[in-house]
Design goal:
With 304 residues, this protein is mostly beta strands. The protein has two helices and 21 strands. It has an eight-stranded antiparallel sheet, with no helix packed on it. An eight-stranded antiparallel barrel has the order 13-15-16-17-18-19-20-21. Strands 1-2 form a two-stranded antiparallel ribbon. Strand 18 and strand 19 form a beta hairpin. The longest helix is centred in the N-terminal third of the chain and has 7 residues. The radius of gyration is 20 Å and the shape is globular. It starts with 42 loop residues before the first strand and ends with a strand. The relative contact order is 0.21.
Length: 304
Protein backbone atom coordinates (compact mmCIF):
# COMPACT_ATOMS: atom_id res chain seq x y z
CA UNK A 1 0.00 0.00 0.00
CA UNK A 2 1.17 3.55 -0.67
CA UNK A 3 2.06 5.51 2.42
CA UNK A 4 0.50 8.93 2.93
CA UNK A 5 2.38 11.58 4.87
CA UNK A 6 1.14 11.86 8.42
CA UNK A 7 1.95 15.57 8.29
CA UNK A 8 -0.89 15.83 5.80
CA UNK A 9 -3.07 13.26 7.56
CA UNK A 10 -2.75 13.97 11.30
CA UNK A 11 -4.77 11.45 13.28
CA UNK A 12 -7.97 11.14 15.47
CA UNK A 13 -9.55 10.89 18.94
CA UNK A 14 -12.31 8.91 20.57
CA UNK A 15 -14.24 11.43 22.71
CA UNK A 16 -15.19 10.04 26.10
CA UNK A 17 -18.14 10.00 28.53
CA UNK A 18 -21.51 8.35 29.20
CA UNK A 19 -23.28 5.19 30.22
CA UNK A 20 -25.46 2.30 29.32
CA UNK A 21 -25.26 -1.46 29.02
CA UNK A 22 -27.25 -4.27 27.58
CA UNK A 23 -27.44 -7.93 28.56
CA UNK A 24 -25.05 -10.19 26.72
CA UNK A 25 -24.98 -13.91 26.13
CA UNK A 26 -21.98 -16.16 26.65
CA UNK A 27 -18.82 -14.70 25.14
CA UNK A 28 -16.44 -16.16 22.58
CA UNK A 29 -13.78 -18.11 24.51
CA UNK A 30 -10.31 -18.87 23.29
CA UNK A 31 -7.23 -20.39 24.79
CA UNK A 32 -4.73 -17.57 25.19
CA UNK A 33 -1.47 -17.77 23.30
CA UNK A 34 1.83 -16.61 24.72
CA UNK A 35 0.75 -16.50 28.36
CA UNK A 36 2.50 -18.10 31.33
CA UNK A 37 1.42 -21.33 32.96
CA UNK A 38 -0.54 -21.34 36.22
CA UNK A 39 1.40 -19.87 39.09
CA UNK A 40 4.17 -18.38 36.95
CA UNK A 41 4.95 -14.67 36.86
CA UNK A 42 4.42 -12.88 33.56
CA UNK A 43 7.70 -11.20 32.67
CA UNK A 44 8.97 -8.83 30.01
CA UNK A 45 12.34 -7.29 29.26
CA UNK A 46 12.13 -3.57 30.03
CA UNK A 47 14.02 -1.77 27.28
CA UNK A 48 14.89 1.25 29.44
CA UNK A 49 16.39 -0.57 32.42
CA UNK A 50 17.16 -3.98 30.89
CA UNK A 51 15.66 -5.52 34.02
CA UNK A 52 12.87 -8.09 34.17
CA UNK A 53 9.51 -6.56 35.17
CA UNK A 54 7.01 -8.75 37.03
CA UNK A 55 3.35 -7.83 36.98
CA UNK A 56 1.31 -7.49 40.18
CA UNK A 57 -1.32 -9.80 38.66
CA UNK A 58 -1.34 -13.58 38.86
CA UNK A 59 -4.03 -13.75 36.14
CA UNK A 60 -6.48 -11.36 34.48
CA UNK A 61 -9.74 -12.30 32.78
CA UNK A 62 -11.89 -10.08 30.55
CA UNK A 63 -15.06 -10.11 28.48
CA UNK A 64 -16.10 -7.38 26.03
CA UNK A 65 -19.64 -7.06 24.73
CA UNK A 66 -19.58 -7.24 20.92
CA UNK A 67 -23.13 -5.92 20.61
CA UNK A 68 -24.82 -5.38 17.25
CA UNK A 69 -25.12 -2.95 14.38
CA UNK A 70 -27.80 -0.27 14.34
CA UNK A 71 -29.79 -2.61 12.10
CA UNK A 72 -29.64 -5.43 14.66
CA UNK A 73 -26.92 -7.64 13.13
CA UNK A 74 -25.06 -9.45 15.92
CA UNK A 75 -21.28 -8.95 15.85
CA UNK A 76 -18.64 -11.49 16.90
CA UNK A 77 -15.32 -9.61 17.08
CA UNK A 78 -14.13 -6.30 18.45
CA UNK A 79 -12.79 -4.87 15.19
CA UNK A 80 -16.28 -5.08 13.69
CA UNK A 81 -17.72 -3.72 16.94
CA UNK A 82 -15.60 -0.58 16.48
CA UNK A 83 -16.19 -0.32 12.74
CA UNK A 84 -19.86 -1.30 12.49
CA UNK A 85 -21.34 -1.49 16.00
CA UNK A 86 -24.05 0.94 17.07
CA UNK A 87 -21.87 2.05 20.01
CA UNK A 88 -18.67 2.26 17.89
CA UNK A 89 -16.94 0.03 20.41
CA UNK A 90 -17.80 -2.57 23.06
CA UNK A 91 -20.67 -1.30 25.21
CA UNK A 92 -19.28 -2.86 28.38
CA UNK A 93 -16.58 -5.13 29.78
CA UNK A 94 -16.31 -7.58 32.67
CA UNK A 95 -13.00 -8.07 34.46
CA UNK A 96 -11.62 -10.40 37.10
CA UNK A 97 -8.10 -9.60 38.32
CA UNK A 98 -6.19 -12.03 40.54
CA UNK A 99 -3.53 -10.12 42.49
CA UNK A 100 -0.43 -11.82 43.83
CA UNK A 101 -0.46 -9.71 46.98
CA UNK A 102 -2.57 -11.54 49.56
CA UNK A 103 -4.32 -13.62 46.88
CA UNK A 104 -6.82 -10.78 46.50
CA UNK A 105 -9.39 -10.43 43.73
CA UNK A 106 -10.75 -7.30 42.03
CA UNK A 107 -13.77 -7.84 39.77
CA UNK A 108 -16.56 -5.86 38.19
CA UNK A 109 -18.31 -4.45 35.16
CA UNK A 110 -17.42 -1.20 33.38
CA UNK A 111 -19.42 0.73 30.82
CA UNK A 112 -17.06 1.33 27.89
CA UNK A 113 -18.37 2.85 24.64
CA UNK A 114 -21.74 4.48 24.12
CA UNK A 115 -22.59 5.91 20.68
CA UNK A 116 -18.91 6.45 19.91
CA UNK A 117 -18.00 7.93 23.30
CA UNK A 118 -15.64 6.13 25.70
CA UNK A 119 -17.18 6.31 29.17
CA UNK A 120 -14.79 3.94 31.00
CA UNK A 121 -17.13 4.07 33.99
CA UNK A 122 -17.72 1.47 36.72
CA UNK A 123 -21.17 -0.16 36.75
CA UNK A 124 -20.37 -2.38 39.76
CA UNK A 125 -17.36 -3.85 41.49
CA UNK A 126 -16.57 -6.45 44.11
CA UNK A 127 -13.57 -8.05 45.78
CA UNK A 128 -12.59 -11.49 47.03
CA UNK A 129 -9.80 -14.05 47.25
CA UNK A 130 -8.38 -16.81 45.07
CA UNK A 131 -6.61 -20.16 45.42
CA UNK A 132 -5.06 -22.52 42.87
CA UNK A 133 -4.67 -26.31 42.85
CA UNK A 134 -3.58 -28.50 39.94
CA UNK A 135 -3.76 -25.50 37.62
CA UNK A 136 -7.41 -24.76 38.46
CA UNK A 137 -8.15 -21.36 40.00
CA UNK A 138 -10.97 -21.01 42.52
CA UNK A 139 -12.24 -17.43 42.75
CA UNK A 140 -14.36 -16.41 45.75
CA UNK A 141 -16.28 -13.16 45.15
CA UNK A 142 -18.00 -11.11 47.86
CA UNK A 143 -21.64 -10.05 47.62
CA UNK A 144 -22.32 -6.79 45.76
CA UNK A 145 -25.10 -4.49 44.56
CA UNK A 146 -25.58 -3.89 40.83
CA UNK A 147 -27.13 -0.44 40.38
CA UNK A 148 -28.58 -0.58 36.86
CA UNK A 149 -28.71 3.03 35.73
CA UNK A 150 -32.24 4.25 35.20
CA UNK A 151 -33.76 0.97 36.40
CA UNK A 152 -32.90 0.08 39.99
CA UNK A 153 -30.63 -1.94 42.29
CA UNK A 154 -30.24 -5.70 42.48
CA UNK A 155 -28.38 -7.65 45.16
CA UNK A 156 -25.93 -10.38 44.18
CA UNK A 157 -24.91 -12.96 46.77
CA UNK A 158 -21.33 -14.13 47.32
CA UNK A 159 -20.23 -16.45 44.54
CA UNK A 160 -17.49 -19.00 43.80
CA UNK A 161 -16.08 -19.42 40.28
CA UNK A 162 -13.55 -21.89 38.88
CA UNK A 163 -11.45 -21.77 35.73
CA UNK A 164 -12.06 -24.25 32.93
CA UNK A 165 -9.52 -26.39 31.09
CA UNK A 166 -9.37 -23.86 28.22
CA UNK A 167 -8.36 -21.06 30.59
CA UNK A 168 -11.76 -19.35 30.67
CA UNK A 169 -14.01 -18.62 33.65
CA UNK A 170 -17.80 -18.25 33.61
CA UNK A 171 -19.38 -15.59 35.82
CA UNK A 172 -23.11 -15.79 36.57
CA UNK A 173 -24.56 -12.60 38.04
CA UNK A 174 -27.80 -10.59 37.97
CA UNK A 175 -28.87 -7.13 37.02
CA UNK A 176 -32.52 -6.05 36.94
CA UNK A 177 -35.23 -4.89 34.54
CA UNK A 178 -38.89 -3.96 34.67
CA UNK A 179 -41.46 -6.47 33.44
CA UNK A 180 -44.63 -5.58 31.54
CA UNK A 181 -46.36 -4.79 34.82
CA UNK A 182 -43.63 -2.36 35.82
CA UNK A 183 -42.23 -4.63 38.54
CA UNK A 184 -38.50 -4.91 39.09
CA UNK A 185 -37.30 -8.45 38.26
CA UNK A 186 -33.93 -10.18 37.93
CA UNK A 187 -32.06 -9.88 34.64
CA UNK A 188 -29.51 -12.74 34.70
CA UNK A 189 -26.19 -12.86 32.88
CA UNK A 190 -23.96 -15.90 32.33
CA UNK A 191 -20.78 -14.66 30.72
CA UNK A 192 -17.54 -16.40 29.82
CA UNK A 193 -14.34 -14.40 30.35
CA UNK A 194 -11.10 -15.26 28.57
CA UNK A 195 -7.61 -14.90 29.98
CA UNK A 196 -6.05 -11.55 29.14
CA UNK A 197 -2.67 -11.89 27.44
CA UNK A 198 0.42 -9.81 28.11
CA UNK A 199 0.32 -6.69 25.90
CA UNK A 200 4.11 -6.26 25.89
CA UNK A 201 5.87 -6.55 22.53
CA UNK A 202 6.10 -5.07 19.06
CA UNK A 203 3.04 -4.37 16.95
CA UNK A 204 2.10 -3.93 13.31
CA UNK A 205 -0.70 -1.54 12.48
CA UNK A 206 -2.77 0.29 9.89
CA UNK A 207 -4.31 3.76 9.90
CA UNK A 208 -6.80 5.64 7.75
CA UNK A 209 -8.12 9.19 7.68
CA UNK A 210 -11.71 9.64 8.83
CA UNK A 211 -11.58 13.26 7.69
CA UNK A 212 -10.72 12.29 4.10
CA UNK A 213 -13.15 9.36 4.06
CA UNK A 214 -16.03 11.58 5.11
CA UNK A 215 -15.07 14.17 2.48
CA UNK A 216 -14.53 11.78 -0.46
CA UNK A 217 -16.45 8.63 0.46
CA UNK A 218 -13.26 6.61 -0.07
CA UNK A 219 -11.08 4.93 2.55
CA UNK A 220 -7.31 4.53 2.11
CA UNK A 221 -5.46 2.23 4.54
CA UNK A 222 -1.81 3.04 5.27
CA UNK A 223 0.84 1.02 7.09
CA UNK A 224 1.99 2.34 10.49
CA UNK A 225 5.75 2.65 10.87
CA UNK A 226 6.24 1.13 14.35
CA UNK A 227 4.87 0.59 17.85
CA UNK A 228 6.27 -1.08 20.97
CA UNK A 229 4.56 -1.81 24.31
CA UNK A 230 6.56 -2.32 27.53
CA UNK A 231 5.17 -3.72 30.80
CA UNK A 232 5.31 -1.79 34.09
CA UNK A 233 5.32 -3.53 37.48
CA UNK A 234 1.92 -2.15 38.52
CA UNK A 235 0.19 -3.99 35.66
CA UNK A 236 0.06 -1.01 33.29
CA UNK A 237 2.08 -0.52 30.09
CA UNK A 238 3.95 2.24 28.27
CA UNK A 239 3.65 2.71 24.50
CA UNK A 240 6.03 4.33 22.01
CA UNK A 241 5.90 4.43 18.25
CA UNK A 242 5.56 6.41 15.07
CA UNK A 243 2.70 6.51 12.60
CA UNK A 244 5.05 7.09 9.66
CA UNK A 245 8.82 7.26 9.35
CA UNK A 246 9.31 11.03 9.10
CA UNK A 247 9.54 11.37 12.89
CA UNK A 248 6.96 14.13 13.13
CA UNK A 249 4.28 11.54 13.94
CA UNK A 250 6.13 9.89 16.86
CA UNK A 251 3.87 9.19 19.83
CA UNK A 252 3.95 8.03 23.43
CA UNK A 253 1.21 6.76 25.71
CA UNK A 254 0.08 4.44 28.48
CA UNK A 255 -2.31 1.49 28.82
CA UNK A 256 -4.13 1.08 32.12
CA UNK A 257 -4.99 -2.24 33.79
CA UNK A 258 -8.30 -2.39 31.89
CA UNK A 259 -6.65 -1.92 28.47
CA UNK A 260 -7.62 1.73 27.97
CA UNK A 261 -4.95 3.58 25.97
CA UNK A 262 -4.23 7.31 26.03
CA UNK A 263 -1.37 8.95 24.15
CA UNK A 264 -0.09 12.03 22.37
CA UNK A 265 1.92 13.09 19.33
CA UNK A 266 4.04 15.87 20.86
CA UNK A 267 5.29 17.48 17.62
CA UNK A 268 1.80 17.59 16.13
CA UNK A 269 0.01 18.49 19.36
CA UNK A 270 -2.29 15.51 18.82
CA UNK A 271 -4.17 13.24 21.22
CA UNK A 272 -4.89 9.51 21.03
CA UNK A 273 -7.34 7.27 22.88
CA UNK A 274 -8.67 3.76 22.49
CA UNK A 275 -8.34 0.16 23.64
CA UNK A 276 -5.89 -2.76 23.80
CA UNK A 277 -7.65 -6.10 24.16
CA UNK A 278 -7.39 -9.88 23.76
CA UNK A 279 -9.25 -11.13 20.68
CA UNK A 280 -10.59 -14.62 19.96
CA UNK A 281 -7.31 -15.55 18.26
CA UNK A 282 -5.61 -15.25 21.67
CA UNK A 283 -3.43 -12.32 20.56
CA UNK A 284 -3.34 -8.71 21.80
CA UNK A 285 -4.95 -6.21 19.44
CA UNK A 286 -5.46 -2.44 19.51
CA UNK A 287 -7.94 0.05 18.09
CA UNK A 288 -7.67 3.76 18.78
CA UNK A 289 -8.64 7.15 17.43
CA UNK A 290 -6.29 10.08 16.93
CA UNK A 291 -6.75 13.79 16.45
CA UNK A 292 -4.19 16.36 15.36
CA UNK A 293 -4.53 19.75 13.68
CA UNK A 294 -8.32 19.35 13.45
CA UNK A 295 -8.03 16.12 11.47
CA UNK A 296 -9.16 12.68 12.62
CA UNK A 297 -7.98 9.17 11.87
CA UNK A 298 -8.22 5.60 13.19
CA UNK A 299 -5.41 3.10 13.83
CA UNK A 300 -5.73 -0.62 14.46
CA UNK A 301 -3.50 -3.70 14.51
CA UNK A 302 -2.03 -6.59 16.47
CA UNK A 303 1.22 -7.87 17.97
CA UNK A 304 3.94 -9.18 15.68
Amino acid sequence: MKKISFALLPLALFAMVSCGGTPASTGNPTTSAGTTTAGDATTVEATTTEEVTQTVFEKQYTFFSYGSTAEGEELDNLYDTFEKGKHKGPNYMLYINLLKDGNKVEAGRKTMYYTGILANKSAFSTVGTWTVADGVYTINLDAFTYNVQGTGEWENAANTLTTAADGTVTWTYEGCKKNEGGELVANPYETKLMEKVNFAGEYSGTYYSLTDMEATGKRTDNVMDSMEVVAVADGTFTVTGSVEDSGISSFTGTIDTFGVFVGETPRLGGTMQGLFYTEKDGKPHFYFNLEARERQSIAYGTSI
